[in-house]
Each structure stands twice: as structure tokens, then as C-alpha cells.
């Protein structure tokens, strides 16, 4: 399950940031998860909560915002929500470039 490795990475980032800023407790961690990130959020939450016991993030809440898959047409320049199978622009038939929706990153960490 790759969610365990992702949860470990998130916790490492949060603990490192908390240590550098002298925090005693991590309260909330916000993630940006793209539509194509492949992250199963229920599994991620379970993995994260199992890793945080006995850490300053023991009671931390893990939240996320889903980022829609978006593309830009190489010909007409339109940017729009697309489906993974959309290779051609529905407006002009030009090739589509994915510009958003693959994100998987820590957006913010709330701590005290």
C-alpha cells in the first residue's frame, strides 16, 4: 500500500517543520491532492493516524483539497477541466497538455 509511504513522508515533513519552528504540537496538516494522484484518502488517514501515536502529531487532523485535472490546448490556449482520456481539445481539436491534477503535496501545517 503506497499510502503508508505517503503518510510517512507527510509526517516527516510535518515533524521537521515543527522542530525547526519550535512547535510543541501539530494540530492540522492540509494537503493538495490532484485528481490523478492516485491517493486513497481513507487508507491515507488510517496510515497517518497509526504513525502519529507517541509524536507531537498524535492528535493532528489530516485534511485535503482535491485539485481537478486541468489541461491547456497547445493550439487555442484554452485551459479547462479534462478527463484523463482527453487528448484533444473539444473546442479546436488541438493537443491537450496536462497542467494540473497531479499534485500531491503538503499545503499547510498548523501547530502551536
Automatic annotation (TrEMBL):
Entry keyword Metal-binding: yes
The keyword Zinc appears for this protein: yes
GO BP terms, alphabetized: protein maturation
GO molecular function, one term: nickel cation binding
Domain of life: Bacteria
Annotated InterPro entries: HypA/HybF (IPR000688)
Residues that hold Ni(2+) according to the record: 2
Chain positions recorded as Zn(2+) binding sites: 73, 76, 89, 92
Pfam families: HypA
UniProtKB keywords: Metal-binding, Nickel, Zinc
Family under the similarity heading: Belongs to the HypA/HybF family.
Protein function: Involved in the maturation of [NiFe] hydrogenases. Required for nickel insertion into the metal center of the hydrogenase.
Protein name stated in the entry: Hydrogenase maturation factor HypA
Species of the source: Selenomonas flueggei ATCC 43531
Amino acid at each position: 500500500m503506497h499510502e503508508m509511504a505517503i503518510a510517512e513522508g507527510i509526517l516527516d515533513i510535518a515533524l521537521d517543520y515543527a522542530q525547526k519552528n519550535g512547535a510543541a504540537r501539530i494540530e492540522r496538516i492540509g494537503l493538495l491532492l490532484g485528481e490523478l494522484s492516485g491517493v486513497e484518502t481513507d487508507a491515507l488517514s488510517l496510515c497517518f493516524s497509526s504513525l502519529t501515536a507517541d509524536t507531537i502529531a498524535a492528535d493532528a487532523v489530516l485534511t485535503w483539497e482535491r485539485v481537478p485535472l486541468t489541461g491547456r490546448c497547445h493550439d487555442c490556449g484554452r485551459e479547462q477541466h479534462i478527463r484523463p482520456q482527453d487528448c484533444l481539445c473539444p473546442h479546436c481539436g488541438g493537443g491537450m497538455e496536462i497542467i494540473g491534477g497531479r499534485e500531491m503535496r503538503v499545503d499547510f501545517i498548523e501547530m502551536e
